[in-house]
C-alpha cells in the first residue's frame, strides 16, 4: 500500500474530532487542535519524532488540552500530511514549514514547545530561527549527532536508502505483519506500548509513503549544526530521558542539557523512548509542573 488514507486508516484515528486539514504552500497538513472549552488558553505545540504521527500523542493530548490550546501536526512526510517542502526534509526546512503552519492557524506563537526525539530538534530549531523564548521540553530528545562512526555513517546510509525507489516499498512489506511491528518497536525503543499503539504504528509502517517520509527525514538530518547552536538557546528547557531508551543514550541528553544555558535533564526509571505513550499521566504532570515553574520564574 502506498498512502495512508484518512477515510480508511484514519476512520477511527485518536482524537479524530480535533483533526483538521490546512494548506500552506505545497503542503496539506493534518493537524489536531484542542483546548479548554469556552476560553482562550496559551498555545502548547506538540512535535512528534521520526516515523510517528499525531497518534503518538493519543493519551497525552487530552490531558494537556484541559489547560492549553494544544497544536499537534503530522510532520511533512508522516501520517496524513501530504505534499513537499522546499529544500527537502532538512531540519531548517521542517522548522520553517511548521512556522508557516502556525502562522496559518493564527492562534499565536507557542508558549510551550514539547518535542519527542527528532521532534525536539525541530522545536529547538524553530525557537532559534523565530527567536521564540517559550519553554522547551524534549522527551527523549535527539539533539546531538550519533556518537563516533555512526555520526557519519547513519545519515549517509539513510540518504542511500532514500534515493533507492524500492526502499520504502521493501520497508512497508516487512511491516505488513503487526507482530513484526510490535517486535520492532520493543527492540528499537525499549518501550512497552499497548496493543492499540502497536496497531496504529502498523497502519503507518505498512504504507510506503510514510516509510519514505521517515527515511527522507533521517537522510536530511544535520545535528552537528544544531549542536553548535545549542548554547544560543535562551529558553528554559527540560530534557527528559527514559532509562530504558534503546534509541537515545542518557549521556547524549545530559551533554545537550549542559550545552543549553538554561536546561536541566531528568532520567525516568522503567520507561523507554516512547515514554509519553507508556505513561501519559506522568509525562503530562511533568510538563504542567515545569510550565508552571517557568511561568513563576518569568513573572
CATH fold descriptor of the domain at 16-148 and 223-298: Rossmann fold
CATH-level-4 superfamily name of the domain at 16-148 and 223-298: Alpha/Beta hydrolase fold, catalytic domain
| CATH-defined architecture of the domain at 16-148 and 223-298 | 3-Layer(aba) Sandwich
Largest β-sheet summary: 9 strands, mixed
End-to-end Cα distance, whole Å, is 52 Å
Question: Count the strands?
Answer: 9
- SS-based structural class? alpha/beta
Residue share in β-strands? 15-25%
Question: Uncertain regions: pLDDT < 50 for 5+ in a row?
Answer: none
CATH hierarchy, class of the domain at 16-148 and 223-298: Alpha Beta
| Helix count from the secondary structure assignment | 12
Radius of gyration: 18 Å
Percent of residues in helices: 40-55%
The outline comes out as globular
Average pLDDT metric: 88
Order of helices and strands: EEEHEEHEHEHHHHHHEHEHH
Describe the protein's architecture and organization:
By secondary structure, this protein is of the alpha/beta class. It has a domain at 16-148 and 223-298: Alpha/Beta hydrolase fold, catalytic domain (Rossmann fold), CATH 3.40.50. Helix content is 43%, strand content 16%. It has 12 helices and 9 strands. It has helices spanning 60-64, 91-105, 118-130, 150-163, 167-174, 178-189, 195-205, 208-219, 223-229, 250-259, 275-278, 280-298, and strands spanning 19-24, 27-34, 43-47, 69-73, 82-83, 112-116, 136-139, 237-242, 263-268. Strands 1, 2, 3, 4, 5, 6, 7, 8 and 9 form a 9-stranded mixed β-sheet that branches. Helix 3 (118-130) links the parallel strand 6 and strand 7 (136-139). Helix 4 (150-163) crosses helix 8 and helix 6 (178-189) packs across helix 7. The chain is globular and about 45 Å long.
Amino acid at each position: 500500500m502506498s498512502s495512508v488514507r484518512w477515510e480508511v486508516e484514519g476512520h477511527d484515528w485518536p482524537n479524530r474530532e480535533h483533526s483538521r486539514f490546512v494548506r500552506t504552500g505545497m503542503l496539506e497538513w493534518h493537524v489536531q487542535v484542542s483546548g479548554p472549552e469556552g476560553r482562550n488558553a496559551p498555545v502548547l505545540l506538540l512535535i512528534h519524532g521520526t516515523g510517528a504521527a499525531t497518534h503518538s500523542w493519543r493519551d497525552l493530548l487530552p490531558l494537556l488540552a484541559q489547560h492549553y490550546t494544544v497544536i499537534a501536526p503530522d510532520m511533512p512526510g508522516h501520517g496524513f500530511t501530504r505534499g513537499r517542502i522546499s529544500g527537502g526534509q532538512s531540519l531548517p526546512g521542517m522548522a520553517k514549514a511548521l512556522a508557516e503552519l502556525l502562522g496559518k492557524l493564527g492562534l499565536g506563537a507557542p508558549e510551550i514547545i514539547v518535542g519527542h526525539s527528532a521532534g525536539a530538534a525541530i522545536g529547538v530549531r524553530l525557537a532559534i530561527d523565530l527567536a521564540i523564548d517559550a519553554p522547551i521540553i524534549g522527551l527523549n530528545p535527539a539533539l546531538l549527532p550519533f556518537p563516533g562512526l555512526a555520526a557519519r555513517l547513519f545519515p549517509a546510509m539513510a540518504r542511500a536508502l532514500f534515493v533507492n525507489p524500492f526502499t520504502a516499498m521493501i520497508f512497508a512489506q516487512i511491516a505488513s505483519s503487526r507482530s513484526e511491528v510490535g517486535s520492532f518497536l520493543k527492540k528499537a525503543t525499549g518501550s512497552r506500548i499497548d496493543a492499540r499503539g502497536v496497531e496504529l504504528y502498523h497502519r503507518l509502517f505498512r504504507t510506503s509513503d510514510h516509510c519514505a517520509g521517515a527515511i527522507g527525514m533521517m537522510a536530511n538530518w544535520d545535528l552537528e549544526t544544531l549542536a553548535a547552536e545549542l548554547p544560543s538557546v535562551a529558553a528554559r528547557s527540560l530534557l527528559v530521558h527514559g532509562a530504558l531508551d534503546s534509541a537515545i543514550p542518557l549521556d547524549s541528553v545530559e551533554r545537550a542539557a549542559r550545552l543549553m544555558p538554561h536546561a536541566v535533564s531528568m532520567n525516568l526509571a522503567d520507561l523507554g523512548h516512547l515514554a509519553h505513550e507508556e505513561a501519559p499521566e506522568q509525562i503530562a504532570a511533568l510538563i504542567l509542573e515545569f510550565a508552571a515553574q517557568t511561568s513563576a520564574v518569568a513573572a
